[in-house]
Amino acid sequence: VNNQIKRYIVKFLTKEINSQELLELTTWLEKSDKNKNAFFKLKEIWGNLNYNSVIKNAQTHLEWEKITLKLHDKKPLSSKVIHINSAGKKKITERFGLLKRIAVILIITVGLNIGWNTFSEQKPTITYTSFKVPFGSKSFIELPDGSTVALNSGSHLRFPSHFEKENRIVYLSGEGFFKVTHKTQKPFTVSTKEMNIHVLGTEFNVMAYDDVNHTETTLNKGSIKITSPDSDVKATGIELKPNQKATKNHRTGKINIINTDSKLDSYWVENKFHFKSIPFSELIKRLERWYNVEIIVKSEYLKKTVYSGKFNNEESIWEILDAIQLTTPITYTHKLRKIYIHHKTQ
Amino acid sequence: LIQAKDILSTKEAFENIYKSFHERLFFHATKFVNDHEAARDIVQEVFIKLWLRKDEIEINSSLKSYLFKSVNNTCINYLHSEKKKDLFLNDIMFQIKLAETNYYKDNCIEEDMIKKLMLALYELPEKYKEVILLSRIQGLKNKEISEQLNIPLRTVETLIYRGLKKIKEQLKEEYNLQLLFMHFTQNKLHNNIN
Fold first, then answer.
1. Which ipTM was obtained for this model?
2. How far is CA A296 from CA A283, A287, A300, A323, in A?
3. What is the pTM of this model?
4. Which of residues 45-104 of A touch B (CB under 8 A)?
5. Where are the extended beta strands (E) located within B17-122?
6. Do the chains contact at A14 and B141, CB–CB below 8 Å?
């Protein structure tokens, strides 16, 4: 192996290779099986070095729950063929048209597109729609069963174009307020990284952002059941009553239930911004998502303080910062979309 | 020859199999598809098929290699469909990935093997270990490493290469990297899976 090729191999592994170099590397690979072997051995070692951090994303327990939900009635897979017709797609587009005022990036991905073959109808195909709401916007989605979801900034919702016969599962990362159509025979499940919420028909808010260290579900109406495989509640789950909130701490795995005014947690749906005794650092994260800015806090003291407040989304980020300034000794400066917050010293 | 239905007589048996292989299969899939969500879906599909078609599936090697091969095949199908959409893969990368799936025999990842690998990494001389940790574990770009350690970019690349070579030599015996060509297409298993 000459030195040039060695460098290309490393660049390939670190994903820093350009197309010209890639071409030369491939030419070298094609020369012999020995070359390929040498390359793939190094690639395998490189790949395996990341094992421990990658498997953190396997979500073994949640995936098992999904499998058991899917296999609920043990029907053969081939009888669950889901046809994606043009009408279904059109529906999505029309609904999307209604959302013109709201900036939404619609990405249609084919999720379980296994054994795809256009000529065979024997094979199961489930098409998933992914909605990604950019920072600084919100979105409102109607699901195939008529249930509705309001999605907060920076959220991602993934759902099938048609729900299966026996269940309705959607996948959420971020925050959503759900109004679920009642269907006794067809439970609705919101699946998040740390918590699953099982529903018959109801209204509730779920907050499950990847960069926040806890997951919250607040029930407004009806009843829901929460399961969380790696916590103390396991598969049996906890039932929530209206005006109760379940918070899971990702670090300890503990789930706490408190009584609350459920309206507070879904204020954002009406463009109101409400928070009660949250750490300053979390307030900053919310503001970043809400206004699509980057906020850098230059004070360890501020990071430790706790904050409560209520704003309307009509207010600008500057008005909010000014309001915080009234009660907390801060100053701020900004450069483009970056805002720096300092602790004001006397 | 193992009949799948014999080892999957109860749901508990299925659950045990699932729990002992899920993480490793997920990891295997992420190597090809570079996307956690897709990898989870692929592994889930393999398990669902195993359960629903247990009466038809005959396993002519071991359950372990059946599962890894199924994930391989499902990844190939996924890569084909992704390529159709021309979203993430340019042609050359696609060819490399296909070649790679061909070169894994039944690359069963054992936790024991990962431990040995990490041990080999930590036993490397400091200069190799440092660049590999910064690159692989901390995710720094080669240029950032070169700036941080104040060494030329080429040296960073050489150190990574040599470090990997050293790990490879270290693991020669335990870490059995048999990368033989797989004839999936002539494999009866393949017909059952797809």
1. 0.79
2. 12, 11, 11, 18
3. 0.48
4. 45-55, 57-60, 63-64, 66-67, 70-71, 74, 76-77
5. 58-59
6. yes
